[in-house]
Design brief:
By secondary structure, the protein is α/β, with parallel strands linked by helices. 25% of the residues lie in helices and 24% in strands.
Length: 338
């Protein structure tokens, strides 16, 4: 347990300013994420240093296709989440406090030094805060990311994008890249009904702050059958991304597979994924990928001359033909962090 960052007093309660929910928390109560508690007028992060997952992954698995392609990243997570997605793949660690009404904190204890040393001993020059929402273990991620930078290690978040601008500003000096995950194309109704999130506006505020802070961004969108089948929300999402973040932001269109409380919903038809892909390309996005469809839509092509630049299969890079960050055929600069 550690005193939390980003909160203030409002009357006899505490306002948490870490994520867009901005919970107002009474003495002795928890926030919606169930890992931040008001104890005697101070807000505490209950899960500081308590990790439930530590793995080495290809960076492409986050997915980050344009950030140090072909690298491996040391990936960590704490239990809990500020969202309650009914289709979560990692529900056993993200929803565990909600589902099992658990009061004790899960996970082995680690220090930031432990994580950084383990990343180095695994030969990783990147640490990813992932699997669950990094915002809910922000204090530990912050301390680890700061130490990682001192050792020359980069940091990436895989996030639902619900961090407040204050949180983005705080982590920005140590956060090199972020994968921001949309579900159902950011449709507000879907977020209300199946994610338990009242408002999608904080996601856009977070993205705009990330761009301001020069954090490298890639976007994912999970396409769930039965939601946004007409793809109007997706069109709006792409336009918003293009107009606010630019047409070079990589977009990953992810196939849904039945999971958790959505085990009776079929996987996304390939046809829908292809149509979604075409919409993103038609709206001018230069780097559009398919996810969870090994061997399809994973390669990077030069937007100027069409040359194949990076080949991938099943979220692993197999060949990189870039010359530095340029197309080997026409010399176009490609937005890739190397
Ligand atoms: S992180 Fe979000 S969900 Fe958790 S207490 Fe703070 S505002 Fe509430």
């Amino acid at each position: 347990m550690k005193e939390a960052v980003l909160w203030h007093k409002e009357g006899d309660r505490l306002r948490c300013d870490l994520c867009g929910r901005r919970c107002l928390i009474a003495d002795g109560a928890l926030g919606v994420c169930l890992v931040r508690k008001n104890i005697d007028g101070k807000l505490y992060s209950l899960n500081y240093g308590r990790l439930v997952a530590l793995h080495v992954d290809p960076i492409e698995k986050k997915p980050l296709f344009h950030f140090q392609p072909g690298s491996f990243t040391f990936s960590i997570a704490s239990a809990g989440c500020n969202f309650a997605c009914r289709f979560c793949d990692n529900y056993d660690i993200s929803q565990v406090y909600r589902d099992r009404k658990l009061e004790q904190v899960l996970g082995e204890e680690y220090t930031p030094e432990d994580v950084v040393n383990q990343a180095l001993s695994e030969g990783c020059r990147i640490i990813s805060y992932t699997y669950t929402e990094p915002t809910i273990f922000f204090e530990f991620a912050y301390d680890t990311a700061r130490l990682a930078h001192e050792k020359g290690i980069k940091n990436t978040f895989v996030t639902n994008g619900y961090m407040t601008p204050e949180a983005v500003k705080m982590i920005a000096p140590y956060l090199d890249a972020a994968t921001v995950d949309f579900k159902c194309s950011g449709d507000p109704d879907c977020y209300k009904k199946i994610i338990g999130v009242p408002d999608v506006a904080p996601i856009y505020e977070c993205l705009i702050e990330m761009k301001k802070q020069n954090i490298f961004i890639e976007i994912t969108n999970l396409v769930i059958p039965g939601f946004d089948d007409e793809m109007s929300s997706f069109k709006n999402l792409v336009k918003r991304i293009r107009d606010n973040l630019g047409d070079e932001i990589p977009i990953h269109i992810l196939r849904f597979f039945p999971a958790y409380r959505f085990s009776d919903i079929p996987e996304t038809p390939l046809e829908s994924l292809r149509k979604t892909y075409e919409i993103a390309r038609k709206e001018g996005m230069k780097f559009v990928y398919l996810g969870n469809v090994p061997g399809q839509g994973e390669n990077t092509y030069c937007p100027s001359c069409g040359e194949l630049l990076i080949e991938r299969f099943g979220l692993m890079m197999s060949r990189n033909r870039l010359k530095g960050d340029k197309c080997p055929k026409c010399g176009t600069k490609i937005p890739v962090v190397i």
